[in-house]
Structure formats: structure tokens, C-alpha cells
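User: Structure please.
Assistant: Input sequence and predicted structure:
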Amino acid sequence: MLQTHSHKTLVTFGDSWPGGGELNEDLGQLAYGRQLADQYGYNFFNYGSPGASNEDMVLQLLESKLENATAIFFLTNPARSMHWPLGMSWRHDSNERKNWCSDAKDFVKTLKLHFHDDNKDTIRTSMSVITLQQMCKTLNIDDYYFAGWIRQTDWLPGVDTDKIYKGGNETAADWLGATDHNGEHLLGVEDNEYIRPNFAHPNHNGHALIAKKLAEWIKL
């Protein structure tokens, strides 16, 4: 049972998972944040955006202009960057660049080496979380973080890992029994009861399971 909390506003941040990707609200299919808010009588705001990076959550928090709230941040693929167009492939030879000149494609290779590096990805995620945690402290926001489908355990000094579900070593995909992925989305989930008939996002029952796990952890 969640304990009563003075902050009666719940806000979710992140990518298409908190945003309710592939759900149909007209059919009563609700993302985990809405399910939690409805269950415990909270006001609810969702700033999840398809393809958003961990860095983008800093911009989402600024956009929200909220204080005195409870916030749940969804940690997505750390390779994503706010400096890269949403939905654009990192591959220099992707179909969207088939008419590009060789110099432009070489530039993409250079950008990939700069942004798409495991060590730099980890550092960028840590920097984003440190920033979010300090902002939330200033704004009197109770902040919580959990990993989506990629485990994230290598944190810079200064990250309060107590605010991250199991320090990032267990993911929402683990809860759903959908641990295979290609970095950007889940794989082999056609028959998963928490995903089907969706392509790679949780269905209503999947979001209900995520809400249940979060409710067991967060004291609203």
C-alpha cells in the first residue's frame, strides 16, 4: 500500500514508453503513469515523447514548469542524443542518405564516433541524471528513475543511485519477460502477453505491471 504524500501531482518523463506508444486511450489502454495517478487520486501530467533521449528529459522538466510534484523518469537507450534528429539512423549508408554526397556521409561517421560511443553514452546519461536530480531538489520534486530495456549501472560520482530502481541493474523489460533488444527496441515479443499485439511497446497489461512494480517501490 502506498503511503499518502503531500505532493498530489504525478508527472512522467521520457520517451514513447511513458508517452503511451501504441496504446489507444479511446479503448481504455493507459500508460503506467496514468494508471498510477488514477489509482491513487493524483493529478497527472505526461511529457513522454517518441524517440526522446535521456538528455531530452532535462528539456521536458524545464517545459513542465512544475514544482512540488512526484516525478518518474524513464531511462531509455543511452545512445540517443538530443543533438541528433529524432528517428534518424546513425548508419551512414542508411536509405535516408542514399542521395547524400560522400563528404556528408563521412561527416555522419564522424558524428557517430563522437556521440555513439558506449563510454560517452554512459557519461551523457549520468550527466543528465545528475542535472535532473539537482533540478528536482531545487523544485521540491520527489524524483524516481528506472531503466527501460537497457541496464545502466555505470554511474558518475554524484548520481544518487538510491533514486534509480536497483541502480539501473533491472529493467522494465525484465519485468515483462522481454529482455532481447537491438538497442532501439525489443525483439522477439510477438507472443509476449505484455506486448502483443504491439510491435515493441507494452500493451495495457504491460503498463499495469510496470505501474504495479513502481507502486511497490515508490511511496506516493
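The first strand starts at residue 9 and ends at 13.
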